[in-house]
Amino acid sequence: MKIKCTCGEVIPDQTDYLSYKAHIIGEKNYFDFLDTIDEAIESTEEDREKLCNNVRQAEANRSA
After folding, report:
1. Considering the entire predicted model, what is its pTM?
2. Which of 2, 20, 21, 27 is deepest in the core (most CB within 10 A)?
């Protein structure tokens, strides 16, 4: 993916582990992601592991 900056430069994003690598996420998805994090933080001990895995999965699926 290549992203064009408002300054006119092109930001290449063609590999992993770049110092300037970013994720693009829509507002609705972002708020859903934050809700998933809140749910994990506020959870009881019994379901914390499952909810933390939900956060990890949500993170993995938000890259554009």
Report:
1. 0.48
2. 21
